[in-house]
């Protein structure tokens, strides 16, 4: 079976299995918020993120993890907003994208002045950047993203392209191809002062939720491979490198979810009166 066929098969199974299983749906949302935040520096464990979001229980050393707590809560709330808007089948306009970014950075935004222009900024505002930004590369060195004057036009061009294809990309493969492409291209523009990775992953989730498909995420333990895929795609201009990474990265959590569901369903068939089955948690 090809990777795409495996991905499509698993996606369809997850889509079916998530119907009526609110606990699993909540666990998936928690996983998205946890891993996406961890990629950007959150120190919470998956258990701590789950306890925080599901039971409002803070880590025992909460003062030392305050920023991580805020990151996870804000990402979770931004994800809920994404789901709410996607259910309305709205096109992806610039104000919507700005709102997603402002929610991601709500409690961890920073204010300051651009050292080159002296212009004031607030990374929690959701406004497009008016200054240069860069990131360190896996192999060393730094990448500086496009000139801030190009950001508004390039962001609008990207959103226009996404919207022109959004409705008709309605099967599992075409919808996810569009989602992965949008993810990569928004990261490449880096339109905001901060939170670009999280916003790009939420844009991917928006497109998936728009078509009622399972939302994919990048595992924190695959962070280096994720960055390497982005860098290799930058260098070669070949999106297939990023597609391949996203397919591989998505197969593992979808496989685990399907295995868990099939296992618990079989247990219910064998012993439908066993209450402990309902309390089984995903490791």
Structure notes:
With 283 residues, the protein is mainly alpha-helical. It has one domain (3-279): Fic-like fold, CATH 1.10.3290. Helix content is 60%, strand content 4%. It contains 10 helices and 4 strands. The protein has helices at residues 3-18, 22-39, 46-55, 66-87, 94-104, 151-166, 172-189, 196-210, 223-236, 240-270; strands at 111-113, 120-122, 134-136, 142-144. The strands form 2 sheets. A two-stranded antiparallel sheet has the order 1-2. A hairpin with a 6-residue loop joins strand 1 (111-113) and strand 2 (120-122). Helix 2 (22-39) packs across helix 3. The longest helix is centred in the C-terminal third of the chain and has 31 residues, at 240-270. It is globular and about 65 Å long. Mean pLDDT is 90; it is low at 269-283.
SSE-based structural type: mainly alpha
Radius of gyration: 19 Å
Envelope shape: globular
Q: How many separate domains make up the residues? A: 1
According to CATH, what is the class?
A: Mainly Alpha
Give the distance, in angstroms, between the N- and C-terminal Cα atoms: 27 Å
Low-pLDDT residue spans: 269-283
Report the helical percentage: 55-70%
CATH fold-level label = Fic-like fold
Count of alpha/pi helices:
10
Question: Mean pLDDT, nearest integer?
Answer: 90
Task: Summarize the main sheet.
Answer: 2 strands, antiparallel
CATH homologous superfamily annotation: Fido-like domain
- The SSE string, one letter per element, is HHHHHEEEEHHHHH
Q: How large is the share of residues in beta strands?
A: under 5%
């Amino acid at each position: 079976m090809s990777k795409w066929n495996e991905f499509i098969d698993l996606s369809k199974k997850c889509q079916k299995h998530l119907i009526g299983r609110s606990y699993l749906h909540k666990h998936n949302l928690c996983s998205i918020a946890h891993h996406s935040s961890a990629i950007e520096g959150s120190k919470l464990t998956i258990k701590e993120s789950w306890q925080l979001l599901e039971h409002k229980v803070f880590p025992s050393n909460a003062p030392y993890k305050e920023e991580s707590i805020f990151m996870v809560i804000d990402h979770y709330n931004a994800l809920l907003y994404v789901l709410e808007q996607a259910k309305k089948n709205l096109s992806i306009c610039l104000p919507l994208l700005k709102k997603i970014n402002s929610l991601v950075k709500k409690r961890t935004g920073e204010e300051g002045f651009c050292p080159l222009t002296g212009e004031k900024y607030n990374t929690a505002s959701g406004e497009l950047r008016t200054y240069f930004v860069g990131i360190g590369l896996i192999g060393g060195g730094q990448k500086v993203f496009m000139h801030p004057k190009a950001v508004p036009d390039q962001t609008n061009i990207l959103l226009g392209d996404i919207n022109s294809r959004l409705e008709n990309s309605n099967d599992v493969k075409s919808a996810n191809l569009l989602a992965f492409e949008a993810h990569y291209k928004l990261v490449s523009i880096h339109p905001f002062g901060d939170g670009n990775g999280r916003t790009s992953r939420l844009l991917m989730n928006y497109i998936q939720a728009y078509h009622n498909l399972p939302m994919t995420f990048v595992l924190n333990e695959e962070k280096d491979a994720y960055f390497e895929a982005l860098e290799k795609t930058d260098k070669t201009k070949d999106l297939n490198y990023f597609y391949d990474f996203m397919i591989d990265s998505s197969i593992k959590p979808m496989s685990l979810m399907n295995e868990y569901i099939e296992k618990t369903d079989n247990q219910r068939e064998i012993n439908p009166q066993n209450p402990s089955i309902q309390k089984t948690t995903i490791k």
